[in-house]
Structure formats: C-alpha cells, structure tokens
Amino acid sequence: MKNSYKWFLLALLSCAFFFHQADRALFGLLTIPIQDELHLTDVQIGWINTVLSWTLAAMTVVAGFCGDRFSRKWQITGSLMFWSLMTVGMGYVGNFQVLGVAVSAFACVMFFRSIATGGGESFYAPSAYALLAVHHRETRSAAMSVHQAALYVGLMTSGALVAWILGGLKASTWVVAHFGEKGYWRPVFIIFGGLGFLLGVLFIFALRDGRPDGPKPVKAKIPLSEGLKAYLFNPSALCATAGFVAIVFVNNAYLFWAPKFAAQKFAVGVGEAGNGVMLWHHLVAFGAILLGGVVTDRFVGRMPRFRLGFQIVALLCGAPMLLWVGFAPSFTSMLVACAAYGVFRGFFEVNTHASLFDVVAPQYRSTAVGLLNMMAFFFGGLSGVVMGALSEKHGVQGFEIGFGLMAGSYVLAALLMAISFFFTFKRNRVVE
Description:
This protein is mostly helical. 81% of the residues lie in helices and 1% in strands.
C-alpha cells in the first residue's frame, strides 16, 4: 500500500492536467464563433492569448515560491477550483455595465480568459511537478511522461468533444433562447469549467503532501534569494529554459491559431479543422511522450546527458516538420505534418521538468519550475500577438510566415541547449 499512493497521486494529477489543457484549448477551437458574436479582431485575439501567457509568467514565480514553503496539496486544489470557475465565467462574457461604466466584450474576455484563468492555472504546475518528484524517484521520467500525456489527451480530445458538443448545441432551441443564435459556443466553457470544479472538490479529500513511507514534510523557510541563485546562476538550468521557451512559443501559436489557419487555408468547417489539427497531432505526441519516458529511464542511468541530448535532437528534427505544417499543399498533408511535429514535441516535453531537476537541488525545485514557466510564458507568449498581427496584415500567408519563424526558434533553442550538453551539465548535475 505504501507504494500504491504514488500511482494514485499520478492519476489524480493527470486528471487535473487534462482539464488544465482542455480548458486552454477551448479558446483556440472556438475562436471563429467567438469573433463572430463578439466582433473581436485577430490582433485583439492575439493580445488575449499573449496576456494570458504573460499572466502565467508573472504569477508562476509567486506560485513556485509558495510551493517550496506551503502545502502543495492546497495550492493544486485551489488552483484547479479557481480556474474552473473562471472558465465557467467565460461562458457569460459580453458587454457589461460595472458601476455605471461600460465594459467592452474585449475587456471581459481579457479578464476572464487571460487574467483570471491564467492566474489560477499558474499555481498548478510548480506544486504538481514538485509533488510528483517527491513521490516518484526511480520512476520519475515514467511518471512525468504519464502526467504530460494527460496534456495531450486534453488537447487531443478537446477538438472532438467541442465538435460533438457544438453539433448538439447549434440545434438546441434552449441554447438559442438563453444564449442567442451566435452564442452556441458559451455552454462549452460552462460544461468544461463545471466538471473541473467537481474534480477540485475530490482533491480536497484525496490529495496529501508527504510520502506514506516517510515523515510529514516540514517546509523550510528558504530565502527567496537562494532559490533565485539556484536557477539564475545555473547555466545548465538556463539552457534547459531556452528549449522550453521555444516549445511554448510554438505550442501557444499552434494551439490558438492552427484551427483557424486550417479552416481558412483549406476552406473546411470549424469543427473539422479543430478536430483534425488537435486530434492527430496530440494523438501521435501522446504515444511519443509515453515511449520517450520509458526510453529515457532506460538509458539516463548509464548516460546522464542522454535526457539532454534527446531533447536537442527532438528540436532539430521538429523544425522541418513545422515548416511542413505552414506550407502544406492540402489539408491531408497538413494533418500528416502536424502528426510528425507531434512526435518530436512529445520527445522533448517528456523531459522538460526532469531535465531541470537534473541540475537543480530538491529544495529549490518549485521555485525553479516557477521561474522556468515565467521565462517560457513571457517570451513564448509573444507568438500569440505575432501570429495575430501577421494574419491581420497578410491573411493566410501570414500564418505560413509564422510557422517559418517557429521552425527557426526550434533551431536556435537546440544550439543554446548544446552549450549545456558540451560544457556545463557535468558541473551543474545534481546526484540524488
């Protein structure tokens, strides 16, 4: 029984991560009907996505600092329940009067989607990854791969779920009566947010901080300066961050804009485009991340730099796949390219946090994850507004240019991570 809880914990956190990523995908999948009803421009949509990333960047540092000092159980639970409620709120956005002051639909979406939801989601990852690392030592890469796979399940199935739900909502007289003919997208947010909140209620009773076979954890009052030093003066940690920045830069743009890009370029429906680019990409990435976890755990014991080298190769191989996505001549070709890109994304992401933990001591890991996410979401979040501006100026061709830029970011990140592989990793490595 003492070892069974770590797998139960993994299952619980994987469920939470499913909703974390499914909720994140909803906006990209529903961008066209949201724009149609609320009259938002591509540039405004781009800023909504970028401010979401910047909110995550700002708050995740606070979340990481708290994760090394306070109960990770309550931070994870509170995070899940809060962002789920804000997702429900997204279903009711519109033009409002607040204390006699008119608030535009754009401002409402910015608050619920970017600031409130982003702020809530930011408190999940630092505590969740650190808590998994406490309970999984010899099985760390495998556990991280299963948890990361939940991300892909959320993104992969969200397109199909949204397409299925929309099919029923469009024909519902009740939805039309309550949300209007163009508001059929609103109940999707309400449904997903409500289910996430119920999961949070379960977490109140099911999560615990310490290992069953160990003493109750006592949070040390580690000065913030020590956590900052362990990350900012660690060249290997910064090189690992460069790779994650590139991954987030590409993921954000893909998540928010790929459905619209496919729908416009190949004249397919919103549901078909969203389901296609989400399903096949994340289905293949799901398999890659599970395989990558097993492969890494098999070789990293004998070759400590294997994890890092595996990520570098994944970036270099993923770059041409992104070019293929952008310039695919047909919808079918694009879906094949999306799947191929998913292979190398999965191989990289299975080791994102494990690579960081290879060079950061355990007592600083929540802080380090917070700083990692801050850097990734601040710089990676720029892709949202860059894509929006390119689309506004050049139409479909702007999306093609954008995917070319994303391929370049993969190559640059691989070169920066190579610095750690050849020069700094051995010096910074933490042996547990």
